[in-house]
Amino acid sequence: MKGSLIIVGFFLLGLLVGNLDFVPKELYSSHVGMVVLCVLMFLVGISLGTSKGLWKSIKETKAVVLLVPGATIVGTLVGTAIIGLFLKDWTIYETMAVGSGFGYYSLSSVFISEYKGASLGTIALISNRANAFTFKNSKKQH
């Protein structure tokens, strides 16, 4: 819960700073979000790369395990495509883009905001953050 509150706090702080025009317009009109995201992904890669048991675990994993994420991907994309049929403001491709964040709210919201605008990026942020929170809490219950 503490981690979620910290993330929400930084998000709200960002909204406040953006609304009060503390940041020069040149800074947020550039691709700062994408650069920060790339640095974060690089750091995650370093963290995973230094894990001693990672490669051993990957080698020992059977290919049948890939059916679970594969079914999740197909089910999510089909479901969001069906939902996209009923939404008049967004295309099927846009709803599928939001759904394909798979809980990685920082990644999907930055990409979608960059290419499709802030409103769809905000929807991606909120929906994927909710997915990540739900998944994290469901793991604790088992």
From TrEMBL:
GO MF terms, alphabetically ordered: L-lysine efflux transmembrane transporter activity
A GO term from the CC aspect: plasma membrane
InterPro entries assigned: LysO
Span of the signal peptide: none
Keyword Coiled coil belongs to the record: no
Domain of life: Bacteria
Membrane-traversing stretches: 30-51, 63-87
Keywords: Membrane, Transmembrane, Transmembrane helix
Annotated PANTHER family: LYSINE EXPORTER LYSO
The protein's name in its UniProt record: Lysine exporter LysO family protein
Species annotation: Candidatus Sphingobacterium stercoripullorum
